[in-house]
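Database export, one record per block. Field names are fixed; values are copied verbatim from the stored entry.
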Amino acid sequence: MNFLNNKYARIVTVILILQGSVFYAVALRSENSPAPAPLASFPTDIAGWQMYKDVKIEQDTLDVLKADDTLNRIYLSPARNANAYLFIAFFKTQRTGQAPHSPKNCLPGNGYEPIESGPITIAIPGRAQPVEVNRYLTARGDEKSVTLYWYQSHDRIIAGEFAAKFWLIADSIRYHRSDTSLVKIVVPVRDGDADAATKTAVDFVKAVFSPLARQLPA
């Protein structure tokens, strides 16, 4: 009864029921799964940020993630004396159980202690409206980092997990598509200055946003 009296629990229940109903209703229809270029072709030099290293993802992690394509890189900006980690996981369909894993669940599971979390807005050059993404400050031992992440589907930037589920249902009905991507950017905190790390992460988002829009399915 306590569960049923919880507003958020009821919302989640309704969303899950709708999602299951929609997927059952469209299960016999063919899905319009896109075929984007491999993420390995993503630019290595972006607005002053140069790729430093392609970081291999362990097979055990890939088996859990179940993404159709991934990218995991470190970029450096000599002018800013900064570095940023870029992770992308692309899922061409969510009908058969594949779905992005929320960093809010994965980071604590990997030993990162959450300190702060909440949405932030970023003004993107050339885009009429700012985008809203998630900001997550975590610590593991003495090391802190700022993580910005969002879900990207058909040129739509989605910060919240509930909103991502809503648009999954809507797009499955309207377009017969359930593809999506998780984009995550991580910047280490130096000298305890989380604000400076956040600014670096925001600068990196502004640099990679247009290449991401060209790379991921519209």
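Remark 1: The chain has one domain: 2-215.
Remark 2: Confidence is low (pLDDT under 50) at residues 24-28.
End of record.
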